[in-house]
Amino acid sequence: MNHGSAGLVIWDVDGTLIPADLRWLTRAIARAYGIAESEVVFPEKRVHGYTDESIAVDTAIASGVDPSAAEAGIPAFRRAIVTVMQEGQRELAEIQAPYPGAVASIAELHDRGFTQTVLTGNLRSAAEVKLHVAGLNEFLDLRIGGFGSDARDRFQLPAIVAQRYSAIYGHQLDPARAVVIGDAPNDIACARHADFRVAVVAHRIGRQELTSYEPDLVLDSLDPTMVVAAVSSLLSSGSSPATC
After folding, report:
1. Cα–Cα distance for residue pair 164/166, rounded to 1 Å
2. Beta carbons of 151 and 157 less than 8 angstroms apart
3. How many C-beta neighbours within 10 Å does residue 146 have?
4. Geometric angle at alpha carbon 168, from 182 and 133, rounded to 5°
5. In terms of Cα–Cα distance, which of 7, 2, 16 is closest to 165?
6. Sheet of 8-11: strands edge to edge?
7. How far is residue 162's CA from residue 146's CA, in Å, rounded to a whole number?
8. pLDDT in tens, 18-38
9. Is the pTM of this model over 0.70?
């Protein structure tokens, strides 16, 4: 089997492969805008499933920073997130260990011939640290990934993945041969925007609520057998919303 001939699996990171934790954004935003960590206030509905830069701007404003200053602080935020991630690697390993089955699922999909990458709101620098510390990067082709440092709007990231895939692998990506695995409503909407298949894992949001957003599949966990079966099913034929 040729490398990647089985299809492309595009993983979300926070909440899907590892638990989500806002401490890194909190620290980076505090440093970038010169406010105390205790004064950082995240907006209620624009955090999970959004890109780091958009979260940083919205959070700075919610924390009392003038909108123009919030936007002007993005270069400082980019530098700060690199610093806090590097400083916190030991802490990261303790609090954001991979979800059960994550490492094994990626390895099993690799063995089955799937190409794998990520689509994440994280800046690339942050995503690389998280994936390295968690031991999740061995079989992920980050050359073709889509990151929050590529575009502020998450819905632009699938096109970036497709462009990079074409450049690296020498042929266009067929949307019907790509599946996103995420955990949030915005992951579903982003995948649909690109005509990708989409499965979500009920790590943070219950199955019933996730199903209401009409993904192709809802997984209870990242059990490797279930993940491989789900991906294989979605990329072999059409399917309607279901659970696994």
Report:
1. 5
2. yes
3. 28
4. 45
5. 7
6. 115-118, 8-11, 178-182, 197-201, 217-219, 242-243
7. 9
8. 999 999 999 999 999 999 999
9. yes
